[in-house]
Specification:
Layout: H1 13-26, H2 31-77
Helix pairs in contact: 1-2
């Protein structure tokens, strides 16, 4: 698609009312700006969800070894402290 290419999207009446209502509350210049903002938010949310899933996966993969290392360090940190 060329940059600045025109496209037309027909929305059902209810969705068009929602876009127009958002345009007013967001003080957007046009309905297109409302749609662009919505797409940007959706893209950002999707990116965050993927990032969150990657962190959860990495945490799950390293959890067992981290717990083991913490147990080893706990024993070492208390050496020589007994009376």
């Amino acid at each position: 698609m060329k940059s600045n290419a025109k496209s037309s999207i027909t929305l059902p009446a209810e969705e068009l009312k929602q876009v127009e209502s958002l345009r007013k509350s967001l003080k957007a210049k046009s309905n297109v700006e409302v749609i662009r903002r919505g797409l940007a938010l959706l893209s950002e949310q999707t990116h965050r969800q993927k990032l969150r899933a990657a962190y959860q996966n990495a945490s799950a993969q390293t959890r067992e070894s981290v717990i083991h290392e913490i147990q080893v360090l706990d024993r070492l940190s208390s050496e020589g402290l007994e009376k």
